[in-house]
Please model this.
Amino acid sequence: MVTETPDATPAGSTASGEILRVSDLTLHHLVEDRLVIDGAFMSVDSGEVLGVMGESGSGKSALLFGIIRLLLREVEQRSGRIAYRGEDLMAKSNRQMEQLRGLEMAMIVPGGKFSLNPVETAGSQIVDVLRSHFPDRSKKDLADEAIEILRIIGIPDPDIRFRAYPHELSGGMAQRILIAKAMACSPQLLLGDEFTVGLDVTIQAQVMDHFHALLRERNTSLILTTSDLGIAATYCDTIAVIRRGQIVEYAPVLDFFANPQHSYSRLLLSAAREARAQQKMDEARVDVERDTSQDRRFVHEDLPAPPDLYTLVAPGHLVRLEDE
Amino acid sequence: MTTTTWPAVRVRVPRLSASAIWAGMRRQKLLTIALGILAVMIFLAAVGPIIAPHDPESVLRETLLDEQGQPILNSQGDPRTQLVNLRAPSGTYWFGTDEKALDVFSRTISAPRVDLVIAIASTIIGLGAGSVIGLVAGYAAGRGRLVGSLAEVLTRFMDIIQAFPVFIVALALVAVIGSGQDKVIYVLSFLFTPIFFRYVRAETLLVRELTFVEAERAVGNPTRRIMFNHILPNSVTTATVQGSAVMGYAILLTAGLSFVGAGVAPPTPEWGAMIRSGVELMQSGQWWTSVFPGITLGLTVFSLAVIGESIRVRWRGSGLRGY
Model:
């Protein structure tokens, strides 16, 4: 039951507008005959970082692919409304979606060099993305812009990396190229699919710090799937925990770590402790606490969740009723 | 953030020096010979008819004169004429002359312009057409009922073309559209398209599922760009490797068609037609009209086979398998 709370507007809540609103998204896998995503909902403001947490196979990636509308052939959408800046994405044709991808929303995929075309230089792959959306501009012009993008992403020697083939890049560098490709046309919404997995911890922190600062600077939103509590605590504004395709808890990051309500969320946090990530978690907590002064809080008062399945425990903090 | 600056280490990339090339040639003698033969043939295709000591297409006047300088009548029934026209290899006519009093050496070195051009053109056209159709068929396979079925129909059509013996189909097609250098190019291109189609389609089916393709789509590349800029360059390698072998096959087919009189007609210099013209003469001892073009043809096909095999070995185990 969603109970109306009178003190609806906490201090620190920003008035930046909603950029993405997803409600009742249900994806059905035809071959395995199960729901990969079951009634997912979310609301993302511009500049917000939403962390989607869950174990592997819980549907984190499927959720992102569902939002950007790149479903596997075996997956069909049963229901759902995806509104990007008020526009209904479900009503858009494939061609319109192709226009939208890259320009308005783009996905950062994991896998480093394995997610890059092996026979094309890093630079020309970025130029390709730019050319898809700005066909009238000259190649020279776009190449200059691509080098500029590489520089902004924080890649040393952008001129040299521009001409490098994926196999000549390190894992961290290749992952930064993937970020550069997604950010090439300055989309307002980025979908990051566990893209720091596989990088070692120091590189991961380096990449994420720079990337996060860039998001702040451009007021770009990010939906980030991760199973890393440290990343979730450090960089996300809001956390959604997903299990078996269902969102079980949706909360502002501080509320979530201070006061996890769903048994699965607690399990997830304790599992991390057992995995000797306690220290990291404490660090992450310290990070969060340190950042709060300048942190913008995103508290969603009107999450499009079905009221008969979710309880509102605090402003913007929803917990799914436990059925077992 | 402070960054440590490391001294730059320059990796030495071995330069392509004359001694390196020489060492490579000593290591791969057979390949060197094959490349040498092919180079000579390409050179002849470019300048053969120009450097030929005699006109490859017109009758040598001096062979039509007898020892006293009197003209010998070239009438059909005169048995003397053919025998006089046929001159054994000598200092003047290195490979001798054939029964029509044409210089065999001049014709042999002029033929690459016909044979090699047919082989190269038909292979390139076949590779181009096969790649594009293969890419489309591979990309469309299994996508949607209509598009997927069209791709399937296309694939089966290619299977049907390949189900027939190549030489018989080539003969039949030449019979329909007529003979001549350009017609032979069309026919061979048509017959080679399924070969390259298969390779590119198979590779496309593999490449389209790789993560980077999904990644390209997720950052906003449209389908057309994904197909031609990202999938095609990754799926065309195997087909290209086959190019050299197919080219050798093309020369054999061209010669074969002309041998049975369906390809390029005399007096255009062409190895197959030249070999044909000397077949009966072999029995009466005038071996040179067939043997010299035959050896040249054999050497050319051999060199292309060696080059093709060498490329194939080099590519084996590389390419996209690691991805």
Remarks:
- Residues 110-322 of chain B form a domain with the MetI-like fold fold (CATH 1.10.3720.10).
- The CA atoms of residues 47 and 59 of chain B lie 21 Å apart.
- Residues 319-323 of chain B have pLDDT under 50 and may be disordered.
- The two ends of chain B are 35 Å apart (CA to CA).
